[in-house]
Amino acid sequence: MAAPTAMPVLRRNPRRSETLSWGMPAPSDGEKFRMDCPVQANMGPMGLQPHQPHADRAAGSRRGKPIKHDVVVDAARRVFLRHGFTGSGVDAIAAEAGVSKQTLYNHFGDKERLFREVIRAAQSGPGDERELARMAGSLGGSDDLGRDLRALGRHWVGMVLQEDAAALRRLIIAESGRHPWLLEEWTRPGAVMEQALAEAIIRQAERGTLDVPDAALAARQLILVVIIEALTRTQYGRRALPDAEAAEIVDNGVEMWLRCYRDRSRG
């Protein structure tokens, strides 16, 4: 009599255990078993590896290495700009980035957190508002305030009218009625810039260059006559602004502001 055939044994794969991440949708009963079980979640019967779907191949082709954060954020930005925040789904973002939906959830949690990352990326370049805040801070010691205000204004206008930044700003304004946190997230760095500008104005007043009873109000008024004027004239970035016109907006705004606040007691 032939010896009985040994039953196959499923062996655990110690390299990977599947776990749920915060923000993931509730799994089905079958998925719960797969995810709770320490056996590798995508192992087939008899411990064989099934064919990997296309999206998982893209994410797992170099298993063990983290996905490129910037690649996913940039893909999300493109999808959000095409479809808006409400109309964009995680499936579409994952496909655009070439990663699996599970991978996206594991790294970013949910769509809201991913959009926050898109906003931070848009505001973290070399010309972002934190850099502008540092530039504004240097105005306090300027010996030619008009010149340095015009330089700051030109740089600032160029930054806010960059195509992607302008498109993202319009999207956030359009979606802010349903999602107020979008506008709060977008404007947070602007408060830092406004504070730095107000502090520089105070230092110039202490030097006797300016006569400013309310530095915070003066800072907001400068932003209004330079930055908001540029945004309004271009329909918030829908129309290209020639360099000469941008310079005119900045020069006129700075000159008017200085006429209001220059210390006249100095003659």
What do these coordinates show?
With 267 residues, this protein is an all-alpha fold. It has 2 domains: 52-121, Tetracycline Repressor, domain 2 (Orthogonal Bundle), CATH 1.10.357; 126-266, Tetracycline Repressor, domain 2, CATH 1.10.357. It is 62% helix and 0% strand. It has 12 helices and no strands. The termini are far apart. Mean pLDDT is 78; it is low at 4-65.
What is the radius of gyration? 27 Å
Sequence stretches where pLDDT stays below 50 over 5 or more residues: 4-65
Structural class: mainly alpha
Distance between the termini: 118 Å
CATH architectural type of the largest domain: Orthogonal Bundle
What is the multimeric organization of the chains shown? Answer: single chain
Q: Strand share of the residues?
A: under 5%
Overall geometric form = elongated
CATH fold field value of the largest domain: Tetracycline Repressor, domain 2
CATH superfamily of the largest domain: Tetracycline Repressor, domain 2
CATH class wording of the largest domain: Mainly Alpha
Mean pLDDT figure: 78
Topology order in helix (H) and strand (E) letters: HHHHHHHHHHHH
Task: Report the total helices.
Answer: 12
Counted beta strands: 0
The major β-sheet equals: none
How many domains comprise the coordinates? 2
Percentage of residues in helical conformation: 55-70%
Protein name: TetR family transcriptional regulator
GO molecular function: DNA-binding transcription factor activity; transcription cis-regulatory region binding
Domain HTH tetR-type: 66-126
DNA-binding region: 89-108
